[in-house]
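Give me the fold.
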Amino acid sequence: MSANIPQKIQHMIQSIKPLDQEAMEDAQRRLDSLTKPPGSLGKLEAVAKQAAGITGEGLPDLSRKAVIVMAGDHGVCEEGISAFPAEVTPQMVLNFLGGGAAVNVLARHAGADVVCVDIGVNADLAHPNLVSRKVRKGTSNIARGAAMSREEAVLAIQIGYDLVSELAANGTRVFATGEMGIGNTTPSAAILIALAGLSPEQAVGRGTGIDDARLIHKRSVIERALQVNAADPADPLDVLAKLGGLEIAGLVGVILGAAANRAVVVIDGFISSAAALVASRLAPLSIHYMIASHMSLEQGHTRMLEAVGLSPMIQMDMRLGEGTGAVLCFHFIDAAGKIMREMATFESAGVSQS
């Protein structure tokens, strides 16, 4: 990694500690005492043990949950890489704030808060429930130059980090990464190619559902972006600033903030995973605080998760974003906690263990 990491980011990285091994051992003993064959509940057991290590508690209370939806626009949309116009971003932000989007429905069902953040929407938005933290009105066109300055990328990371720290101080212990930004599979794929060394054919997918001709065009736009910007793969901040998006940078901060506050962070789909990839390269310890929720249908998501070192909980053929897959995963986290708290032990149930 480049030594040119700003002090603010260094402080975030240094605030992330290893998982609590003693708490994980306590959780494992509890799991092994329950009336089931060892390990038979698979990923539910892994989540229960991971949550113990994250929080430092054998039976953590993970009832307070929030999905943070970072919203930002992308200058690369002027290249015609999306099936939807850029105007949809601010329209969808208002939909989130009105409670009408898919992530709102799923969050209500999961008992989670939706926190919508304008970190880079190319419009003037006002709403009592909007968290307004606009760094700038959208990124520049990455096919012609850097998406943003390094300083703007750091500021966006700081915004995500500070927001999570504030929510964690008020009792939120599980976070989901949500996003909204028309065109944002393009910078996400560019980040994947730059950091994982993949080809456009491996990394670039159809996003909101573009046809074959536009897919070929989208790949050529990303190839131009990679050539024009020549981002340094050894410097994750350089890759983020030159090829990324403000909502992606904000989610990097969400992930680092969750890890620093010993909170669980559930990663959503392709765009969220691009933020996870950048966060993992900045702070490898942050990976242990992440749970991959689902495997998106978006081309390259499998390779993105492999590059981070994560395995998804579920596969539902989803490709919406917003944090929808991550919020669905909240139910599995709740289930893991209920298993730990409510399931009988061999001793309490009078069941022979061998």
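Residues 47 and 190 are 31 Å apart (CA to CA).
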